[in-house]
Amino acid sequence: MNNLTNNLTIRDNLQDIYPDVYTAEALSALSTLAPFNKRIKEVMDTRMKRRAARQQTQTRITFLDPESTIPGTTIKVQDARDGNFEGGIVPSDLQRQWIQGTGPAAKPNASVENSIRNVAYALLSGADGWMFDGEDALGQVTTMSLDNQRNLKLAIHKDPLFLKVAEKVADEMNRWAKSFLGRETITDWETQLNFTTKIFRARGLHLDDRHIRDADGVALAASIVDATLYVVNNYKALQSAGSSIVLYLPKIQTAEEAGVWNKLLSALESHVGLEIGTIKVYVLVEQLEATHQLMEIRAALGKHFVGYNTGRWDYINSVSDAMAWDKTFINPNIEAITMTYGYMRNYEDRVRRAVNTPDVNGNFALWQGGMEPNIPVGSEEGVSASMKKAVAGAEREQREGASGKWVAHWKMVHIVRPVWEKVGQANQLGRAFPRLTYTQQDADGLILIEPAPTDIRGARNLLSVALQYGNAFGQGMQAAALKPADFFGNDDILYLMEDMATGEIRLSILWEWAHKGAILTEDDSETGTKAGDVFSEALYETLRDQEYDKLLKASNKDVFDSSKTTTLPIALEIADTYMQSEVKPPWFIDLLNINLNNTDLDVAKRRIRLYMDTLVNKGARITENLDFAD
Fold first, then answer.
1. Which tens digit of pLDDT belongs to each residue from 120-152?
2. Looking at residue 451, what DSSP letter applies?
3. Could you write out the DSSP letters of every residue in 435-459?
4. E-strand spans in 214-274?
5. Is the pLDDT assigned to residue 503 strictly greater than 80?
């Protein structure tokens, strides 16, 4: 039975099951902010229309007219570029963020005591900050988004249950540290819990919440729900502890969308009695269009904005999607697209220049570097090689001007953090870089393809991990340690932490290869292909069958046996539909989301067909929970 409260509909008695999350104060705030749902749906519709227009007219993303005004604001574009706006001040607990860990605060289908261990690992890790993920790394099966909120509230309020778990986890972490690092890393676990700045990543504007509808019966934007529940349930405890209220905002494509976030956060602050600008936000630069509007996005977020993060996977996916119409734009093997590759190098440079442009008060912003996906688990040789690579990557980012970086696992904190410890500089705010320019050469650099391997090994890696990720998603694990099936059992090849972003890019690149005719650069004896051959759809189908068969034959360690007749066939159906469609789907996650909590392949096929028909015929996405009963 659904609950109707504060002009909102909450499904399946969840208000009664999660009264600690859906508190009276939280529901009041959600009701107040629910009118933003219409505006969010409008900007998402505008986003899809822009995308369709680019595909139809075969045009690139361009810079804004400097004489124009950022839509939805009164800010002139040229003023934003010149720093003629009042930005945010970086608070004391964000001044030093050498290492930020990332990961969800909950586990699928787990008790609170087991699930909340994720938070204990994070807050005892020694990371300067931890981005508790409500988006790409958080599973969305059953009620995981609410479990995530519950666990964070218990931890932030230092509930006895959390403290009991944390004490046990501290012992486990010290045993590992002594064996791997030769020393314990936690001296006083209760004091250590206060070290790490707590940060929350809300879901993007493009996603809907699975559990709440507004007064018009429309799925409430997940952004509204996530930000509201986290802030309302925790702002008092955070402030009492002397901590900032900090969010990461994902998938922003334009300054107009940033302006919607700014108004939403300001309304939330006003509702609970906080001064405007109290909530601080980092923005993940994950979209090609955003790199054309970096100063504009800073200006649109005003006093809330404190920094940018340069990811890798989502950004590659956005470039691939924006250039889907261009038959000449073909990415190489994913392994070749590092942060020093062509368009990635230019993207990173624009971010560091944007944050080091002062606002009207002379304030700069932070640049947090990208993700380190390695995990120090494997053979001695494999771990040693991967850790050297991880440290070298961190050293490069520090030299380039990053004030810190991300790691995907707590075990990486004390391996990578010494890079910044040795330098000893809290941050690199205000480091001198040239001001941003807005020339055709700048725009060309943001889609610069450079020669790199495009081969069958790369295709197998893309396909195997894409299928495994789709399967993990269906199991409730949006963050999963994966590697291509050919390397199962080979401890010299480490598992990497994969989340939704890595799933997205793997299918995007494969789609490019199959639909644009990528030219292979290497011979492959197993398939009989030669350098110079075209990667065809028939070749994709051959590889698909082979890689899927390997997953069916894999051990339970790498592919759960129970998934081989449930979620894995659905992952295959989704990947196949995506790959065979002439119209490139905008998001892999859409097709996964509409099949959450479903293990019936026939139902999945109907839902996938409904989505693709809606996309092709109406130019629209399906983002609501199809299991939300009226």
1. 999 999 999 999 999 988 989 999 999 999 999
2. -
3. PP---HHHHHHTT--------HHHH
4. 219-221, 245-249
5. yes
